[in-house]
Design a protein that fits this description.
With 125 residues, this protein is of the alpha+beta class. It has a single domain, classed as SH3 type barrels (Roll). The protein is built from four helices and five strands. The protein has a five-stranded antiparallel sheet. The longest helix is centred in the C-terminal third of the chain and has 17 residues. The radius of gyration is 14 Å and the shape is globular. The N and C termini lie far apart (31 Å). 18% of the residues are buried.
């Protein structure tokens, strides 16, 4: 099991109370979108409008609408978004992202990681 069901449910309830949540794309999200022909910039501001849980396979997915694409809605894994560090839930969201990423990396799946796989950052000393 990748996600802790109780912690994930609690985080989702807190996030639902804070919607919309401002976020920015991570580098892995930008690369994935470029591969699909969509231009996304690193400093582009996004808004998380709703969330849903897709189990261990996908984790928490966020519904976002990129600026200038009012009719376009994208579902993006929470691990592919960066929430402003001043947001009240920023630390809890980063903890979820870090734990999920580490557990996926430790799952020992053979072969190369996909282009959208997030690797944990090395901590600065």
């Amino acid at each position: 099991m990748i996600d802790n069901p109780a912690k994930t449910k609690e985080l989702m309830q807190k996030m639902k109370g804070q919607l919309p949540i401002p976020a920015r794309p991570t580098n892995s999200y930008i690369r994935a979108m470029r591969d699909r022909g969509s231009k996304v910039k690193r400093n582009q501001r996004l808004q998380i409008y709703s969330i849903l849980y897709t189990g261990d396979e996908g984790g928490i997915l966020c519904s976002i609408t990129p600026p200038g694409a009012a009719k376009e809605v994208q579902l993006v894994s929470l691990t592919h978004l960066e929430v402003n560090r001043h947001h009240p839930l920023a630390q809890e969201i980063r903890t979820y992202q870090r734990e999920r990423t580490q557990k996926i990396a430790q799952s020992g799946r053979p072969g190369r990681p996909s282009k959208t796989t997030i690797r944990p950052r090395k901590r600065r000393k």
